[in-house]
Amino acid sequence: MREAALAGSMALDDASGALSTKPIAVLDAALLVDSGSTVIMKFDTLVPARGPQVGSAGDVRGIASGGLPWRLDAGSGSLSCDGHLIVRIRGLVLAPDPMVPAALRGTNPFPAFRVVVSCLRSGANGSAVVANVSTGDFEANAQGNAEIDARVSLPKPCIAPIVLVTGPSGADGWLAVTGR
């Protein structure tokens, strides 16, 4: 399929206006569209639960914050229309904060993380309804690093998606969320 797409691609030559047979960069994106895996959300940052987000005031679409302040070195990922979710987390650990027991500061006490995708969908009366879908548990190390590659069943439509990183099953508070 890729060879056929490359062979059939043409673009206008800027200098002469004539057709050129040079491959164009848009092809890879077009192939993604054809495969049904269009990216609907790409993010290069996550915000950890800290400050005013810690506690009940930090609820995001019905999910409480993790209860203690966290620190995060880096977080990125993407979500496709078909529910393919990729999240890379680096250094998601408890913050050096007086609220955190001294022995736990700078560590991740969880053996795994999960990711919740929160969407708005149309309710029966046309109002917006929150729909949260979760991955299973993905291994995380004591330094707070994890790679999550999962498929979730997104509601149709999935409006205004938000990605929340939580602890493993049974620890439902969010630790980091998409945003700046």
Overview of the structural elements:
This protein has helices spanning 2-7, 27-34, and strands at residues 11-12, 19-20, 39-43, 46-48, 70-71, 74-80, 84-90, 93-94, 112-122, 128-134, 138-139, 146-151, 159-166, 174-178. The protein has 180 residues and is mainly beta. The chain folds into two domains: 1-35, no CATH class; 38-178, no CATH class. Strands 4, 9, 10, 11, 13 and 14 form a six-stranded antiparallel sheet that branches. It has a four-stranded antiparallel sheet with strand order 3-6-7-12, with no helix packed on it. The chain has a two-stranded antiparallel ribbon with strand order 1-2. Strand 13 and strand 14 (174-178) form a beta hairpin.
Compact summary:
The chain folds into two domains: 1-35, no CATH class; 38-178, no CATH class. Helices cover 8% and strands 38% of the residues.
Show the helix and strand layout.
Layout lengths: L1 H6 L3 E2 L6 E2 L6 H8 L4 E5 L2 E3 L21 E2 L2 E7 L3 E7 L2 E2 L17 E11 L5 E7 L3 E2 L6 E6 L7 E8 L7 E5 L2
Antiparallel strand pairs: 1-2, 3-6, 4-14, 5-8, 6-7, 7-12, 9-10, 9-11, 9-13, 13-14
Domain tally: 2
Tell me the helix content. Answer: under 10%
Shape, per Cα inertia axes: globular
Distance between the termini: 39 Å
| β-strand amount | 35-45%
Determine Rg (CA atoms, Å). 21 Å
Low-confidence stretches: 1-35
Secondary-structure element string = HEEHEEEEEEEEEEEE
Q: What number is the mean pLDDT?
A: 82
Please report the number of helical segments.
Answer: 2
Strand-pairing-aware structural class: mainly beta
Number of strands: 14
Question: Sheet bearing the most strands, described?
Answer: 6 strands, antiparallel
